[in-house]
């Protein structure tokens, strides 16, 4: 088995999730060239995270419908930023996504000093550094998976709500998962302690938090479903059975 085949098998559940949730992805994604991958590794000055190699092999040229509106994650754009010295090589931070919004030009970087599960933390920084980086996701594959469920499932639901889960001195998602499982939800992806992805035929729930934020006892959530009654029942069971404190901040559309 080749090294590339081993990488593909390792992240098969990520690939399955993206292909299932993003319409037309298989027909439109395009991988980077081997030379582009080698150039990126030379810039990084160390082996690229295994998931990044998988991403580049599948979407290093085009992310198809999964592409972000103002961020370009193509290998060609990243290499161009280094060639034009928009970004200077840094032994810790590797540019992976160029932000074209000039009002808030926070680009996506890997923090190569924060590896996790064959991947690394994705953080937001200005091209020349400056302020402390803002962590977005513990891993790039969680970021892409979260985005696919948000854009192609949660956003399509008739009723949505946003809120927070809270409990002192607890791994919140380990308390949440068994309750959602008892309600018929499945987890399409093995995630860490900061990201939770849960699906059911009539509902989807995605949870998030970031490392180094000193908010270990809080996770945000987005819950979408067929109607408000379904969402209320789900949240009621979570509050009752998990001992988590559940706070809903907004309903869309607003409840009367």
From TrEMBL:
Source taxon at top rank: Bacteria
Name of the protein described by the UniProt record: SMI1/KNR4 family protein
